[in-house]
Every structure is written in structure tokens, then in C-alpha cells.
Automatic annotation (TrEMBL):
Transmembrane segments: none annotated. It comes from Oceanimonas smirnovii. It holds the Pfam family Usp. It comes from the Bacteria. This is Universal stress protein.
Amino acid sequence: MLPQVNRILYCTDLSKNASYAFQYAVYLARETGADIHILKVVEQLSGDEKLTLQSYILNQSSREEFLHQRLNNAKAQLQQRQDYFWEQIAPEEQALRSKVIGCEVVEGYPEQTILKRSKELECDLIIMGAHEKGWFHTLLGSVAKNVLRESRIPTLIVPRPEKKGS
């Protein structure tokens, strides 16, 4: 029996390549009838970063507001990217937007959060873009590399598109 793809977890770091990878998520949703769940993980602050934040922002409510604003900024940016994507897509494919059944921005450790949410959502496929810089480790990106290594479901890492004129 051939595998079925009913739920796709599309993970984004909000980079240009992540937007490119979303095209593949939508394409595969169209071809398989799968639903798409979008996930953006805002990396949790390290202990040193939290200490620095406490040193410079003494007021507890101001610190909490700063941390809350990080998530709100990511949500706003994700919404802008989604709106732009759907504005650019062919009119006959606009109905595919209904395939996006969930969109969340959470704070956590990216690899762990992606793997956890893929299980909780009972996803059949994870799609994410390769990192935009450097060579193998950074080309693939440590998050993508770790998800690829630890995932027990198929994971599609979409490479950067070739630059025009190359």
C-alpha cells in the first residue's frame, strides 16, 4: 500500500527560502488533498539572554511585554507573508488557501517543538526550507539537519532556488 499524505506540517523561519518552500507545501497539498498546518517557532531565550534582559529592563511587566512582543512581531510577519503569497498566486488556485487549517507561532526550542507538534498534529510530512547561508551545516541549517535526523516521518527540505542569471 502506498503512503498517504493527509497532513503537512510546514515550518518557517520567515526567510525568503521558507517562502519558496511554502510553494511546495501548497503544491503537495493540491496533489494529495492534504491539509497544511503552519508552524513558526520563536527560539526560547537562553539563560544569558534572560539575564541580560533582566539587567537592562528592570521592570517585570516591561520584560514580559518585551517577550510577548517577540511573539506578536513573528505573528504579524507570518500573516504578512501569507497574505503576500496568496495575493501572488494564480486566481484559479486561490481556493487552496482553505488547505491551511492551522497557523501558530510558539516559543520553544525549534527542533524539539517541530518534532513534538508533528506528532501531536499526526502529520504525515514535514516541509521546511534549507538555511540561506554557508556550507553544509549552515546550508542545511542546524534546525533542518536535526529535524531530518530525528524525525520518524518523511521530511522535505527545500533547497534555495538558483539565483536568476547564475
